[in-house]
Amino acid sequence: MYLQHFTKLVKPSKPILEFLFRRMSRLKKELPILTLFTKDSCTLCEEAKKVLEPYRHRFILQEVDITDPDNCVWFERYKYDIPVFHMNGQFLMMHQVNLKILEKQLAKLEQDGNKM
Questions:
Q1: Least confident among 22-31, 90-99, 106-115
Q2: Percent of the chain with pLDDT over 70
Q3: What's the pLDDT tens digit per position in 42-99?
Q4: Cα torsion for 60, 61, 62, 63, to the nearest 10°?
Q5: CB–CB of 39/72 below 8 Å?
Q6: Considering only CA atoms, which of 115, 110, 103 is closest in space to residue 52?
Q7: What distance in Å separates the CA atoms of residue 39 and residue 84, rounded to the nearest whole number?
Q8: Suppose 75 and one of 17, 57, 66, 70 were both cysteines; which one would form an S-S bond, judging by CB atoms 3.0 to 4.6 Å apart?
Q9: What is the dihedral of CA 55, 61, 65, 70, to 10 degrees?
Q10: At what angle do helices 2-9 and 14-27 cross, to 10 degrees?
Q11: Cβ atoms of 66 and 74 closer than 8 Å
């Protein structure tokens, strides 16, 4: 947004624009992906999403419907355990949101991201 206003005020050269884009892309940090394994009419999953709401700015929520035919492996693994959560592809927790586990993992990922 700021870059758009800047370019309206001044006509920067191509090297300056390239520098600004590179600088902005470095500042943008990637959020971890929290995967929720769920299915239709899962009240525990809906409750879990409500608990997660205050943390939504710290991750991207991806929902996987285990009843979808393409997800039969996840159905066999988690049919009796949803909601199940993975963080960046690794198992994190199941049955309910454990805020201590979530907070610890998010803090670790955020700290690791700041080291790069």
A1: 22-31
A2: 73
A3: 999 999 999 999 999 999 999 999 999 999 999 999 999 999 999 999 999 999 999 9
A4: 180
A5: no
A6: 103
A7: 11
A8: 66
A9: -160
A10: 170
A11: yes
Phi, psi at 46, each rounded to 5°:
-65, -40
Three-class SS of residue 84? Answer: strand
Q: Tokens at residue 6, please?
A: 């800047």
| Residues 20 and 26: beta-carbon distance below 8 Å | no
Closest CA to 82 of 61, 63, 68, 96: 96
Q: How many residues are there in the chain? A: 116
Structure tokens at 77: 């693994």
82 vs 28 pLDDT, higher one: 82
